[in-house]
Amino acid sequence: MTHSDFPAQPSKESPGTSANKTAQGNLLGLLTAAFYSLFTLLPNSNSLMVAWPWVFIWQVGLLCPVLWLLGLLWQKRLRWLGAGFDWVVGLLLVGLIISAGLAPFPMQARWYSWAVFCFLAALYALSTWLSVPERRSRLLVAQGYLSLAFIVVSLALWVNTTLLPELAHLQAWQAYGVRLPFDFAIVELRNWAPVGHQNYVAGYLVLALPLLLALGIVQAGWRRSLWLVGFGLGLLDLYTTSSRGGWLGLLAMVIVTFGALLWRKRLPRRWLSAIGLASMVLLALLALTNNRLRLLFAGVLSGQAGGELAYRLIMVATGWSMGWSRPFTGVGPGGVPLLFQLHRPGWAGQQAEWAYQLHSTPVHLWAELGLWAVVVGVGTIALLAWCAIGWLRTIVLPTGTAAQTPSILIGCLFSSLLGYGIVSLTDYQLDNICISGTLVVFLAVLTAEFRDRPDSGLRAADDRQLIELTAATSNPLTPLRLHPVPFLPLMGVGILLAAIIWLIPVHRAWLLSSQGFAALSRNDVATFVDRLNQSHQLASWEPYYAYELGWNLGNLGLQASNPPQQQALIQDGIKWLKLGNQSAPNQEFGTTNLAWLLLNREPKAASRAFARSAQLIPAKRGVFYGLGLSLLAQKEAELAIDAITLEAVRDPILLTSPIWKLPGLQSLYEPVVRRVESTLTTLLEASPSPALAAQLHQLRGGLRWWQGNIVGARTDLTTYGTALSRVVLDLAEKQTIAPSFLADSSTGSATSRSGALVIAAWLDPAKRQTLLQQAWIVATHTDPPPKIIAELTATMARSSTFDQWLKQNAPSQTYRRERAGFSVLSRHIDGSIPVDFLTVVDNLAIAQFCKDWIPSFDYAPELDTALQPRRDALVQKVLK
């Protein structure tokens, strides 16, 4: 049935209300809604927000609510939010102004603060527009249709761009004898659409699902069916995101909703308990069918939650350090990516090397605003809780007046905010227009509803009054006198004009850089340099333009065959990287790439740059190796051995590289290997924890095996190694291998299974090529390249032992590591994606299939803590 105070067909507004539409700024409101809808449904919208021309489009969209607000203010029709929320907004505005004014990077702070001001303008303008009660339900229906469109677009894009191609790959790999399941543990397979990241999609769905369910309850006929089908598709969409935060938010909503219904005794307890238990069981079953969530639960229960929880722990530690460094102001809006590496803990290893947000809303806001975020956050939660309790005490179902929004819809809004509050603990998503816009819609409805409820008990005497500058009239939006401030609208226009004037060069710089990158794609280097140079002049506080110039010119120089041209390009690259480092002195990207360009020109300056990178990210692959090379160029052999030793302990696969056969490095190899083993032995003698001891034994055992010390390797690996590493030792001693080893490894990690398949390929020459193809698919999740498989097969065929193949004959691979997240983390995606200047040469078999035999731990906090004093001592020697 249709809810009595929520007609199936929209009721018509009174003539007096309709006459006020122009005065209410409906055109600007519609434009605001259009921009909000566009960036809700636009594929990959979160990334496109930092690409030209989309950055300009959404900034124009932000002007609409500001103009709407100024129009209401000029017409003297703006209303307070009421219920104490205005005080919270006032504190937030004061905190933003102080934080941005005192921020170490004030220009970035202004850019991000401007967006916050615009969303607050949207909240006030929309809340005022919702002073006509009938509009609230209609707005929520419109929001429901937008959410339905979001879900349909999300599923359609994910199915066509991710699910079907992956299923085709899995089907094709069956021809090689490999049967793999669809794996949500692979981040690329989770539902990113349309926002650009699975966590953002989940956050939006947690906000949307209660609304769809409520609309399905209060409306009748085909609309009910539509909403309920949309709710079901939304659950499916949430499942495809494989988001832990999303499922936790949904679980919290279910628990609290049924708890509130039990408290209010609206339905028999037996029925409510049965429905609640069934809902919990259904959610648990859905979660357990998702392999990523299943592995998470298993890891938590076993106390080995691993990488992704470690990632969040690093973010919390970094955010706490940022906020505590400036507790009264924070580091300022937009300061996180520029200061992240300065505050990142050294024990983080190779996890979370850079981030532009801290993956937890409370942590992120504390880092950027300090105590202002704490006060505003606690105040907002307290007021919403107070409103929710008041609503629960006065809830009337199903009757009500036509002037009120149905209680079920109000309840769904509280439920959505509760669920999203849980999601916000695990991610920061307020930079997404679709999510912040939805929060604005929900808060505007709630503030308008409680402002106008005579029985709410949550407002002061004037909360229902307009911000009036003159006398009152007698229509539904009648304003009453507050304080005459006739210059307030003009002051607002002045502030808006000042903001636009400040934004013009920022957007012009963005436009010019986009033109420059387009020119570079056509190999028009002169135009590229000219445009990026202009961009830097217009927005010199942006390190991105200087970094892109520096890296691209340096890269072109390294590829140039003409020596004078090469020198000129590299020198220009050095100049621009130095300028970028002036704008962002705490970015490892700039210091490391600068160091590599300086290595053959100014080795002492290169050493200092590498040392700075080592201070920022101590376990960054290649940094201590580069430092060692720069010290070697200065005839500091002992310090060079110390540096490369620190690199090899954290990335021991370096010691298996064919690069040590080069004449300039041959003499260093044996001293480095001895120093690495000595370091590991010394750390073991210091009575480490069982976890660290196991890692040290695995490292030393793998190193000893590589060096041919099988007896010493067995000492380490008999207790601490894997079953497969012991098989490798048996092969080294030419022992018979039990055929069951392959089956025993079939349920392990991808690395373990691929390693077992490589051993099987060695033992079974008749099936060698097929087994190597299977190993490649399992290890890389890509199609096996015929050329590489042929090389692997041929080198095996001419080897007399498995050890000889791995250590002497296995093919090598040469590549440069890509900075995959550089553009997104820089908040510009128009330009090139850099690759490190260091050319890596790997033993292909070890790097692809045998990582567990000489392990590199991306997250080993105890090991990094133990190594840190050695790193600090070496860096101090370099910088003295």
Topology overview:
Layout: H1 15-19, H2 26-41, H3 45-48, H4 54-74, H5 85-101, H6 106-129, H7 134-173, H8 198-218, H9 222-241, H10 244-264, H11 269-288, H12 291-302, H13 307-325, H14 336-343, H15 361-369, H16 371-394, H17 407-426, H18 433-451, H19 488-521, H20 525-538, H21 543-559, H22 563-583, H23 588-598, H24 603-616, H25 623-633, H26 637-650, H27 663-685, H28 690-707, H29 710-720, H30 723-732, H31 741-744, H32 750-763, H33 768-780, H34 786-797, H35 802-809, E1 812-815, H36 822-826, E2 840-843, H37 844-849, H38 861-879
Antiparallel strand pairs: 1-2
Overview of the structural elements:
There is one protein chain. The chain has helices at residues 15-19, 26-41, 45-48, 54-74, 85-101, 106-129, 134-173, 198-218, 222-241, 244-264, 269-288, 291-302, 307-325, 336-343, 361-369, 371-394, 407-426, 433-451, 488-521, 525-538, 543-559, 563-583, 588-598, 603-616, 623-633, 637-650, 663-685, 690-707, 710-720, 723-732, 741-744, 750-763, 768-780, 786-797, 802-809, 822-826, 844-849, 861-879; strands at residues 812-815, 840-843. The chain is an all-alpha fold. A two-stranded antiparallel ribbon has the order 1-2. Helix 6 crosses helix 18 (433-451). The longest helix is centred in the first third of the chain and has 40 residues, at 134-173. The protein starts with 14 loop residues before the first helix and ends with a helix. Residues 1-24, 397-403 and 456-484 have low confidence and may be disordered.
